[in-house]
Amino acid sequence: MKVRRRRVWTWLVTLGAGFVLLAAVASGMFQLAVQAMPGYRADIERYVSQVAARPVRIGAIALTWHYYYPSLDLSQVALMSSDGARPVLAVDRLRLGFALTRLVRADFMPDRLELSGLTLALRLDRDRHLHLDAMEEDDRDDQTDALRTLAGFAGLRIERCRLELRDERRPAAAPLVFGLDSAALTRGLLGRSLQARVTLPPAYGERAVLKGTFDGDLLEPSAWSGHFSAQVQSIAAGPWLAPYLAPGAHVQLSGANAQLDATLERGQARSLQLRLQADAVNAQRAQHRVAWTDLDAQLGATLEDEGWEVQLRRVALGGARGVWPRAGGILARHQAAAGGAVQWSLSADFLRLDDLAPWLSIARAPGRLEALSDATGEVRDLSASWQADEGDELR
Length: 395
Prior knowledge:
Blueprint lengths: L1 H35 L1 H15 L3 E2 L2 E7 L2 E12 L6 E11 L2 H4 L8 E13 L5 E3 L10 H9 L3 E13 L8 E13 L2 E9 L7 E9 L9 E9 L16 E5 L2 E9 L2 E18 L2 E17 L2 E13 L2 E2 L3 E9 L6 E11 H4 L2 H4 L4 H4 L7 E11 L7
Parallel strand pairs: 5-7
Antiparallel strand pairs: 1-3, 2-3, 3-4, 4-5, 5-6, 7-8, 8-9, 9-10, 10-11, 11-13, 12-14, 13-14, 14-15, 15-16, 16-17, 16-18, 18-19, 19-20
């Protein structure tokens, strides 16, 4: 028995070594063929152009083995305009991976794509439509076809990508620069999975880690169903907060991190879980001031067609009058019929108004609520409900 096992192990090692040697010989012969026959390079460029549905220029070509599948490694790749006159996108390295099961059927369409060293300049117009600055008007008709091609890969990976976003609604603002350190999108039997590490613009934070599993058409977010999570580190109180703050209000965050989990059904968020932690939160507008320390808040939300409910499951913080006791609460909004009255309900174990009321002046709030921004004291075991007409301020 031991002799038989030894023989099997010897054969496996021999086959593995032979496979590696064969792959190395094939890669070397391919490299020599590319250097010796310029026409072969042109054939490969034409092939890659067919895959990309657009003219492509390639600097260097190599055949390699990546894990268990062969790949075509292309360096200094330029995606050209429709007429081939100018480069639209430039990539330091592009790798096309081929499944062995396809190759034995003489199917040479790659099923994996890896990009490295890509820079994209995007523009958000006033109608919130996203455009690639390098694309001309007549080229933009081909963007959907190009995206369809990308969506067809079983594996898509991007590394060292720089993303510059310019918002036409704020023409004086500098472009936002995101760094996509790494991102992987894979397609499996049960749907797609996504993982990404993003370096954020300084005005937003330091870094974000995104994960998700979902199904649905990749190019139709309104059809996505699945679960997503995001971790954001060192959140900054930048310009993104401006729409939620009253004029003249200022907010500063120190050591702020967030964890968000969301469940989507056909593009609609149905449940959310949020944990927000911060060493310090300071905000001020005129004489109204907030100073929180050691914030740790855990919230859950459910969203339905008839309304939503937000649960404050736990909150801990140090405020103007010391540390809060254990507290939680629920805020709900429901509307039985479209155009009908809106039912609100609020419950809370504990509220310290000294730490909450100033936000009614700092944040954008209905005028009637801002009048309560000077309230002080403590509220325990609060339970309240009220009704408001759709579109009207709370009353």
